[in-house]
Design a protein that fits this description.
Radius of gyration: 20 Å
Largest sheet: 6 strands, parallel
Distance between the termini: 13 Å
Order of helices and strands: EHEHHHHHEHEEHEHEHEHEHEHEHEHH
Strand order of the largest sheet: 2-1-3-4-5-6
């Protein structure tokens, strides 16, 4: 039985959900999932998480500026050096394979590899459809990319080996039969008939969710079903404004996706992969600055999720039955790819 260390970070839920889905797939081995924020000096990780969340909630455009700055090799180098603050607690870890699902965790592990303090192979799982410079490390043995454009971006940015890997989503995200769809609607107290659009903005409920929900309602094409995540203030406001189907934290997201006809999201990360796995068409609308817009552009180019840029186009987009395109390069199961690294260790 091999020892595998997966390092994620609780910035939203995308990195963590990918990490735990991977851990579940690798359950034949001894797998440990660590949070990068907990590896930082005391209290620093929590402060960074709160700062990032506040930034997205109150000044989302500043996140776009931050990512643009980090696209400079010099500024990206500063971020990589900052990541080494987590190395003290990673140093001496006994593992046969290290996997990162979060960029700064990648660079902490890469620093240990460069210093000879981590001898195990290092793999990077890229959670976003678009790849940023800070997500890639030349020290990694393998980058797992969600599509062929992301693979090419990773190679251009310095990845030594990159492969297109099938998304790491829970097996419960799957196409539903008509009886399952009706049962899901009953379970969540949703209308038995009519078109439903799930409006979701990740675990934190950030972005222009309120405007999106009302735009969907005004379209006359679909009834909005809003998942606010941990944003209770947003949940309470939307309910007070008369929207009938507003949820806070949803434990059974696969079930909720089975109940709806289309998913409207703003970031393009794991939620899009989960919706596509569930056989639901995906729209990107009022995309978050920075990574949200970068992901929207890639998903739209691939034909996986239409990017609706103009509110006037939303009704027509909501009424269409989208048939997601297939990427030019077929995706591989990530588990055999990681097993090959273990064989080389």
């Amino acid at each position: 039985m091999a020892r595998i260390m997966i390092v994620s970070a609780r910035f939203g839920a995308g990195h963590d959900r990918a990490a735990y889905a991977l851990a579940d797939r690798l359950s034949a081995h001894d797998v440990e999932v660590l949070d990068f924020l907990d590896l930082l000096p005391p209290a620093l990780g929590g402060r960074l998480c709160r700062l990032y969340r506040r930034q997205l909630q109150t000044a989302p455009r500043s996140w776009d500026w931050t990512l643009r700055a980090l696209n400079s090799p010099r500024t990206a180098g500063l971020a990589r050096r900052a990541a080494t603050l987590a190395c003290r607690r990673l140093r001496g870890a006994r593992t046969d394979l290290a996997v990162s699902t979060y960029p700064l965790a990648t660079h902490a592990l890469a620093h240990l590899r460069d210093r000879g303090e981590l001898s195990a192979p290092l793999a990077v799982y890229l959670t976003d459809p678009a790849v940023h410079r800070v997500s890639v490390s030349g020290a990694a043995d393998l980058h797992l990319a969600p599509n062929h454009l992301a693979r090419q971006q990773a190679l251009t940015l310095g990845a030594r080996v990159a492969a297109v890997a099938a998304p790491l989503v829970a097996s419960a995200f799957r196409s539903a039969t008509p009886p399952e769809r009706h049962q899901a609607r009953r379970t969540f107290g949703l209308p038995a008939d009519g078109r439903l659009a799930l409006v979701t903005a990740g675990s934190w409920g950030v972005g222009q969710v309120r405007r999106t929900a009302h735009d969907v309602a005004r379209s006359g094409v679909a009834t909005p079903v809003v998942a606010c995540g941990s944003n209770t203030a947003l949940r309470d406001r939307l309910r007070a404004e008369g929207l009938a189907h507003v949820f806070g934290w949803v434990e059974d997201m696969p079930g909720l996706m089975r109940a709806v006809d289309v998913v409207v999201q703003n970031a393009g990360g794991l939620t899009s992969s989960e919706a596509l796995a569930a056989g639901r068409p995906v729209l990107t609308y009022r995309a978050l600055p920075g990574h949200g817009r970068a992901n929207a552009a890639v998903l739209d180019r691939l034909g996986l999720a239409r990017w609706v840029r103009d509110p006037a186009d939303l009704p027509a987009a909501l009424s269409c039955e989208h048939e997601p395109a297939t990427t030019a390069q077929p995706a591989e199961d990530p588990i055999p790819l990681l097993e090959k690294l273990l064989d080389r260790a």
